[in-house]
Specification:
Blueprint (H helix, E strand, L loop, with lengths): L1 E6 L2 E4 L4 E9 L4 E9 L6 E6 L5 E3 L7 E6 L4 E6 L8 E9 L13 E3 L3 E6 L1
Parallel strand pairs: 2-11
Antiparallel strand pairs: 1-3, 3-8, 4-5, 4-9, 5-6, 7-8, 9-10, 9-11
Length: about 120
């Protein structure tokens, strides 16, 4: 139904910046809100930031003022601009999309949500 592919991860020094992208393909009308999660070794996957189809955003306290989530619905792409990166930001970052509950999705969209494969972000001290 929906495929999500992350890109933009890499190695950066503390204080640097990265911009992650999540490209959605397939039946993108199945997508409602989207979000970025990260997961560090030995820790649970946790929500970093989310954005609704209308552009309303929420952030984890740990990234407020440093990260900015955005989406370009025309391009079916979501972004995470990460500034002032810290070593504790090191993790695999995953793109997530919630299933739309629109009447237009009836008979087309069935999964509860969708996930990408993740992109590694490593911040060195």
């Amino acid at each position: 139904q929906v495929q999500l592919v992350e890109s933009g991860g890499g190695l950066v020094q503390a204080g640097g910046s990265l911009r992650l992208s999540c490209a959605a393909s397939g039946d993108t009308m199945c997508i409602s809100a989207m979000g970025w999660y990260h997961q560090a070794p030995g820790k649970e996957r946790e929500l970093v930031a989310s954005i609704t189809s209308g552009g309303s955003t929420n952030y984890a306290d740990s990234v407020k003022g440093r990260f900015t989530i955005s989406r370009d619905n025309a391009k079916n792409t979501m972004y995470l601009q990460m500034n002032s990166l810290k070593p504790e930001d090191t993790a695999v970052y995953y793109c997530n999309a919630d299933r739309s509950r629109s009447i237009l999705t009836i008979g087309r969209c069935f999964a509860n949500d969708y996930w990408g494969q993740g992109t590694q972000v490593t911040v060195s001290s």
